[in-house]
Amino acid sequence: MSQLFEEFDEISTLAEGLDDAEAGGRIMAVIELANSADPEAIPHLAKAIIDPDEGVRKQAALALTAFDGSATAAALVVALGDESQAVREAAALSLTELKDPEAGDALLPVLTDSNEFTLLACLAGITELRRPEAMAPAIAALAHTSPMVRCQAVSVIGWLQDSTAIPALRSAATDEHPTVRRTALAALGFNKSDHSEKILISGLDDKDWQVREAAAETLTKSGSHTCIADLINALNDEYWQVRLKAVRTLGRLGASESALHIGPLMSIDVPNLRKECAAALGELCVPASREFLELFKDDGDPDVRKNVRWALGKIDSL
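The structure corresponding to this sequence follows.
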């Protein structure tokens, strides 16, 4: 018990610095309170959030990154309404570090806020907390005029992995903004229905290459061979990044018929793509792939050579 009182007295002593006449002294007190890592410091840092000096308020918002829970989140929500953009941005950053689901108690009431910055920050803060109560406001936010808000709303829905939200994700996959579409396709990965797979396959033809890349990568999770022909076609995409994801997915799906399509890509002057091709050929373990791999045993890139040796070893073990 005496140790607890000693710790409390230490925090109280540090907190006295928040009454320093000089802003610099108050900033140092905020830093020391954060360094204590003692939850007893949270109420004092919450007090610093409304300090008259912008520098103190910003430091307090950043200092709260070291803590978690509802009280921390509540203080950061206050900081989101600060007149200073620097303070608001510091608070938004700290919100993304929250891990305790109880922190969502302070964020849930703000998920309908009319201020775009506040709404975006709270959606980002609650995403990884996986609070089921965030589903309804996140779905509502899909109609927001800001693509950044819509994108973060999709992330919230995706982390919850609730099958009842699949229609909302499928709708977001056709959003006018490519970042929203890309995020929605990635979020659909947990749903293995034929309808979702068809949406992912259609994503391989999206006008934005990053959306096509996301579609090719997410199809890995489908476990279905319905998409094989479309992924093979994606090996001809103008962007090597899309081809790389298609190669990886074909390898992991065990699409042996794709080996003869993947092999020629070993000649592309992109080491990352050659490395992925070698790995995929090894995963497919098709004897006919040997002729492609043999040509690159002495590739100039060490990672490519390593994957080639591994792939050849797998084929030799047949």
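Residues 4-8 have pLDDT under 50 and may be disordered.
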